[in-house]
Amino acid sequence: MASSSSFVHLVNLGLVLVLLGFIVPRSEARPRAFFVFGDSLVDNGNNNYLQTIARANAPPYGIDYPTHRATGRFSNGFNIPDFISQELGAESTMPYLSPDLTRENLLVGANFASAGVGILNDTGDQFMNIIKMHQQLEYFKEYQQRLSALIGVPRTKRLVNQALILITVGGNDFVNNYFLVDSTARSRQYSLPDYVKFLITRYSKHLQRLYDLGARRVLVTGTGPLGCAPAELAMRGKNGECSADLQRAAALYNPQLEQMLLELNKKLGSDVFIAANTALMHNDYITNPNAYGTL
């Protein structure tokens, strides 16, 4: 288990952001910037600008969004980044590929996430044109160049250093790679425990790159109960139970992710990366719904 300084249970998002110092006092003119990286859980429309089959641009997506229209979010309404933006007192970050992300909008931050991606470059190949993690990070570098042209290099560096960053990736490396079919190239190459170690090593490299690009406060989510997702229940579950293989994968992955973040923080000499236990959050919501106003 990670130490309390670098591990949070995302049960009360507002409290977490207060503790991390990201709720903006009313005296401040502008909330801190917010950047998002990852997969469909946090993509808010980038894939709409790509020739890919991984898109959420038609009903029933968006039915509970204020406009009641699909926005590119893989959700019936707001997604996790939207709620974080609301807690920050800011407008939702725009997809980086949106042509409307210009000038003042750049100061809010940007969303680089793309549905279907994983930690590994070969994850999500079946979706064709998606923004792999290495490209998301290259876009982050490009974003800083664009912003520097508007406000200068020193202000841009300060904005990025002070920003909150969310990264949510990893689930697809199991459901859309290792366990995609009965026998995949990765499952023949690695046993599940060795595959998890391989993922953690690769993920560490992405996070180091994120740090090198100026990130200094990063929420890193683990995977939820992968085997209990509706699609996996339908395809792999037996007698209505969650997929045992995917549940085992999540059980192996999450503790090793936490440990890797601790080691990376130790190497950097600061708690840059904050592990967010989304599995615990999910379980708490299911077992104690009244605490969230849900009957």
TrEMBL record:
The chain crosses the membrane at residues 6-24. Belongs to the 'GDSL' lipolytic enzyme family. GO terms for biological process: lipid catabolic process. The keyword Membrane applies. It holds the Pfam family Lipase_GDSL. This is GDSL esterase/lipase isoform A. Keywords: Hydrolase, Lipid degradation, Lipid metabolism, Membrane, Transmembrane, Transmembrane helix. It comes from the Eukaryota. One of its GO terms (molecular function) is hydrolase activity, acting on ester bonds. The keyword Protein biosynthesis does not apply.
